[in-house]
């Protein structure tokens, strides 16, 4: 698993950024939301068409050589209107409207699995995501998706965060 974020370049283009799970703790301490950085020493790769957080054809991958310099003297403003953040109530209002398919980001608070429990029958994983302090969502996955999720979850070293698409 990895930590996926969105970067905004000088032309206000959203670019997907991925940090390998083994480097998450290293970069988490060096980055803060809403800050402006000069970035060097990163890899550029084609965006995965099955997992795209932005329209950009490329994504950025941070590595051990990546260097951040905080820009405190920048006159640039971050155009927050291009990010569509919603409260839990707003997400509920979008249910079954077919107007927008928002991403849901939350902390994995529990995982129940027929795979690890050794139960026979269909493979099923139920993940509880904490969206806010008192708002939890249960997500169910079946068959191949359940096995894929469980495999990646088991390989993860630290407590994962989740993004649901």
Automatic annotation (TrEMBL):
Signal peptide residues on this chain, from the entry's feature table: none
Gene3D superfamilies (alphabetical): Nucleic acid-binding proteins
Regions annotated as coiled coil: none
Membrane-spanning parts: none
PANTHER family noted in UniProt: OS03G0429900 PROTEIN
Name this protein carries in UniProt: DUF223 domain-containing protein
């Amino acid at each position: 698993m990895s930590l996926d974020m969105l970067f905004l370049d000088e032309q206000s283009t959203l670019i997907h950024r991925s940090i390998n799970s083994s480097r998450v703790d290293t970069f988490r301490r060096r980055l803060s939301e809403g800050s402006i950085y000069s970035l060097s020493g990163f890899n550029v790769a084609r965006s995965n068409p099955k997992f795209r957080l932005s329209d950009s054809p490329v994504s950025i991958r941070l590595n051990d050589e990546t260097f951040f310099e905080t820009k405190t003297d920048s006159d640039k403003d971050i155009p927050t209107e291009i990010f569509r953040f919603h409260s839990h109530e707003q997400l509920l209002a979008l249910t079954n409207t077919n107007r927008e398919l928002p991403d849901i980001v939350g902390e994995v608070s529990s995982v129940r699995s027929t795979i690890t429990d050794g139960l026979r029958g269909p493979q099923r994983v139920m993940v509880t995501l904490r969206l806010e302090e008192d708002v939890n969502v249960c997500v169910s996955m079946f068959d191949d998706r359940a096995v894929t999720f469980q495999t990646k979850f088991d390989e993860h070293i630290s407590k994962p965060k989740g993004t649901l698409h």
